[in-house]
Design goal:
Arc Repressor Mutant, subunit A; elongated; homodimer; mainly alpha; DNA-binding; about 110 residues
DNA sequence: CCTATTAATCGTAATATTGCGATTAATATG
DNA sequence: CATATTAATCGCAATATTACGATTAATAGG
């Protein structure tokens, strides 16, 4: 079955998987980077910057939004997207927590 | 098409996407955590710890291995898996680099 | 040599993702 | 009001992922 089994995963595990999934496609990483690099929010400029169709970009933005990584504000006819800094920091922290143990104990055995 | 378009993504973008994809499933996050928590490498114990079939666990391990996050050493009949600490640190650093700009500029606009 | 044990791989089915064109809804502008 | 512009959504096709049982290959132990 394609669906992931409904198993008792911890909140942290689910959170990490959710954030990771959002970043699991280079196009979404590129979009996120664009949103970060531009100081002010860019809107549909992403379509011009990347060689991807408008509908596809919109879909990727939707996924980034659902993962909570970005926010969108209506601004006239266009929509202004930008990064949710707090969420990004939180995501980074959760990941750091998971990796922390491994960083503390350099080489385990292999 | 399900395949991602072959587009000029940067090395960093592709790396992040690759690592993120490896962590984009809670089962793989759980497996990675198990490998980190146990000081010594555990082998097939993962199957006992998680409510997932052996073949499925093997598949997840393969993906973590292909992403370069874990290593596997043959140890008799069983195989000893463990985390590649250096790679994890590198992955974390690359991610931090991407998020750094966003953390420096707190709220952009929305 | 025979038999467990361990873990990879194969085959298959169900579902998810990706990508795009076309359409739609909403706001701006003349 | 008519018309552009912007971005979401729908529908579809191609492909990827997930999960599992069954099988296979390899080693350990008697």
């Amino acid at each position: 079955m394609g669906a992931s089994k409904i198993i008792n995963y911890s909140e942290a595990e689910l959170q990490i998987a959710k954030f990771a999934k959002a970043l699991s496609h280079p196009a979404r990483v590129a979009i996120l980077q664009l949103l970060i690099q531009k100081q002010s929010c860019i809107c549909g400029d992403i379509v011009d910057e990347l060689p991807i169709a408008q509908s596809t970009v919109s879909q990727h933005l939707k996924e980034l939004k659902q993962a909570g990584l970005i926010k969108g504000n209506i601004d006239g006819a266009s929509i202004c997207y930008c990064v949710d800094t707090e969420v990004l920091q939180t995501a980074n922290q959760i990941l750091n927590n998971v990796l922390a143990v491994s960083i503390l104990t350099p080489t385990s055995c292999c």
